[in-house]
Amino acid sequence: MRNVWLIIRREYVERVRTKAFLISTLILPLFMLAVTVLPAKLAGMKAEGTRHIVVVTSRSSLGEAVKRQLTKGTEAEGAYRIEIDDRVTEGERELLRSRVSDGSLDGFLWLSDDAIASRKVTYAARETSDFIEDAGLGSALTVALMKERLAERGIAGADAENLLKDVNVETVKIQKGKESSAGGMQQFFTSFMMAFLLYFTLLVYGMAVMRSVLEEKSSRVMEVVLSSATSRQLMAGKVLGVGAVGLTQIAIWLVIAGALATPGLAASREMRAWLQLPPLTIAAFCLFFVLGYLLYSGMYAALGAMVNSEQEAQQWQFFVTLPIVVPIVMLTFVIRQPNSTISTWASMVPFFAPILMYLRIVVQTPPLWQIGLSLAVLVATIYGVLVVCSRIYRVGILMYGKRPTLPEIVKWLRYA
Amino acid sequence: MNHTLELENISKSYDHFVAVDHLSFQIRRGSVYGLLGPNGAGKTSSLRMMIGITLPDSGEVRIFGEKFRRQLLMRIGYLPEERGLYRKMKLLDQLVFLAELKGVSARDAAHRAASWCGRLQLGDWMHKKVEELSKGMQQKVQFIAAILHDPDLLILDEPFAGLDPANAVVLKDVLLEQKKAGKTILFSTHRMDQVERLCDSICLINHGKAVLEGELKQIKAKYGKNNVQLEYEGDGNFLDESPLVERCNNYGNYVEVRLKPGADPQELLRLAASRARVNKFELVEPSLEEIFIDVVGAGNA
C-alpha cells in the first residue's frame, strides 16, 4: 500500500508541477469563453458610426414608415441617417451610384413599385458583407410594408403595433412537477459543453496514462521500480495518480466557473445562467469522470505496455479512442431526445455510458432503474477490463522489441 | 546463515525458448560473485528472478536464508542492465522516490543522496533534471539509486558498462568498501579483467545452464598452469609441429603457448632450448578470458 501511495504521489506531484498543467488548466476556460461568448458579442456589435442611406420610393408614406422603422429604438446618435427620395428614375439611380462610390453616401434602398409588388427590393451599398444589417433592413421593410397595408385597411397606430409584436417563446423545463427557468437553448449549451468537457478530459487523461507507461517502458526505469514494487502496484499508482491530477484540474475549472457565475464577475446574465451548474450536474460529472477514466485509463495503460514507441501507439490508439468518440457523434441526438429507445440503450453500453448516461441525467433524469443498470454494467466492465489490462500490462512492460501479435497477447493473459 | 543468495534448480522459459535451465548456485555472505556468459545466455533472466520481477517456472530462490518474499527486496539493491531513470524528474527527487520505495524515510533518503552525490561528483547536479545529465552521470545516479538504502545484497547488471576509466575506479572502490562492510555483491559482466580483480567466485552460464561454477582460485587451479609465455630468438616453426602444443599464438619473437593436457612444460623448454635461443620462459595461469572462450566455445561446438 505504501508503494502505491508513493507512486501516486510521484505521478501527481511531477504532473501538477509542470507548466503544461498550468497552461492547460487556464487555456481551456479561456478557449470555452472564446468560442461561446466572443462570437456572439462580436456579431451583436452594431456597425460603427452612422450609416447614411437614401430610401428611394415614389410613395412618401412608405418612405416615412421605413425611416421610422430603421431609426426606431436606436441611441441618440442613431445607426442610420435616412433621406427620402421620390425620384424613381434611371438618372437618379445613376446619380446615387456615383454618390455611393465617392463616399458621400453609404447606400440606397431602391423601392420601385415593381420591386415592392414582387417583394424583391435592392439595397446597393459599398459594404455588403454585413448579413445582420441585411436582415435588419429586410425586417424593417417587411414591418413598414405591413403597417402600410394595415393602415390601408383601417388599422393604424397602437393597434398595428400590437398586431406586429414579435412572439417570444420561453422554454420552461418541468422537473418533479416544478417549473425551472432553465431555457432550452441554455440547457442545450450547458449539457453540450459539459459532455464535451467529459469527453475531452477522459481522452486527455487516458492518453496521459498511456504516455506515462510508455515513457517508463522506453526509458527502462520500469525495471528499477519493479525491483521494489509489483506491476500491479505500479499500474494502480499510475492510474490513480494521473486520475487525481484530472480531478484537480476539474475542481479548478469548477471553481473558475463558480467565480465567473457570481454577479460581480459575470460578463452577462446569459453567461451567469450558463455557468451556474446545479449540484446534481457537478456530482454526476465527477462520478462519470471517475468511472469513465477507470475504464479507459486501464485500456490505455495496457496499450502503452504493448507498444514500444509513440508512433506504434498511434496505430493502435484508434481502437481505444473510437468508443469515446461514438458518444460525441450522438451528443446532439441524445440531448434532443434523451428518452428515445436509441438514447436509452446506447447509455447502457458500458463504453458509451460515462458520457451518454451523464448526458441523460443532466438533460432529463431517466428512471432510477436505468441509471442503476447502466452503472452496474459499467462497474462490472471496469472490473473485467482492469483484470485483463493489468495482465497485459504486467507482461508487456518487460517485453521489448517486437510488437506483440494478437495471439501473443491472448497468451499473455494466461501467464501465471 | 552462510549464504546470502541460493538458487536451486531454477528454470524459466518464454514460449518455447528456454532462458534459464535448471540453474543452481550459492553466494557466500560477504563475497563478490561474478555472473558471466555470452549475450543471450540468460544472465538478465536469472537476475530478474532473484528480485522477483519475474517468477521462476520451477525451482526456488532463497535470499538471506529465506524463501523469496517481496519484503526481502528492501534489503536488495538492483542496477538493471538497461539504465533507466525518469527523464523529467530532478535528480534528488528521483533518488528520494526510489529510496522511499525501498522503505527509507524521505528525510534519510535526501540526506544520504546528498552525501553520495558529493562523493561521486554530482553535488552540483542534484537539482537538475536527469535529461540534462550526461550518460556517464546518469550511470552514476543509477548506481546511487541501487545503493542508497544500504542493501545487504547488491545485484548489478553490467555495472562497468559505459563508465570511463576514472569512474570505473571510483565504482570499484565503492564495491570493495561495501564488501569490507560485509555486504554481498553479485554482478554480471563481460569484462574479464574486472572479474579477475574483484570476484571471489564466479558462475559462467551459457544457454541458460551453468557451465562453470565455483571459487575463482579453484577454477584457475583446475585449469592448471598449462600456459607458457616464451620469448626467443630464431625459428619458431617447431612449435606448430610439436605434439606437446595444443595451440599457440605467435607474435614473432614472443609466443603464447597452450599445452596439451598432461604435457610436461619441462619438455617444451628442452625442445625450445634445442631449436632456438630462449630469453624468457614462464608458466602462467590461464586468463579467465581464455577459460571463458574455451568453455563457451566447447559448449557451442
Description:
The complex is a heterodimer of chains A (416) and B (301). Chain A has helices at 2-16, 19-44, 60-71, 90-102, 113-118, 131-152, 158-163, 184-218, 221-226, 231-260, 269-275, 279-306, 310-336, 341-346, 353-363, 368-396, 406-414, and strands spanning 51-57, 80-85, 107-111, 122-125, 173-175, 178-180. In chain A, the strands form two sheets. In chain A, strands 2-1-3-4 form a four-stranded mixed beta sheet, with helices on both faces. Chain A has a two-stranded antiparallel ribbon with strand order 5-6. Chain A is elongated, with a radius of gyration of 31 Å. Chain A folds into two domains: 49-163, 3-Layer(aba) Sandwich (D-Maltodextrin-Binding Protein, domain 2), CATH 3.40.190; 182-414, no CATH class. By secondary structure, chain A is of the alpha/beta class. In chain A, helix 3 packs across helix 6 (131-152) and helix 12 (279-306) packs parallel to helix 16 (368-396). The longest helix of chain A is centred in the middle third of the chain and has 35 residues, at 184-218. By secondary structure, chain B is α/β, with parallel strands linked by helices. Chain B folds into two domains: 3-215, P-loop containing nucleotide triphosphate hydrolases (Rossmann fold); 225-284, Alpha-Beta Plaits. Chain B is 35% helix and 31% strand. In chain B, the strands form three sheets. A six-stranded mixed beta sheet of chain B has the order 6-7-8-3-9-10, with helices on both faces. A four-stranded antiparallel beta sheet of chain B has the order 2-1-4-5, with helices on one face. In chain B, a hairpin with a 2-residue loop joins strand 1 and strand 2 (17-28). In chain B, helix 2 (91-101) crosses helix 3 and helix 2 runs parallel beside helix 4 (135-147). The interface between A and B is medium-sized, with 24 and 30 residues.
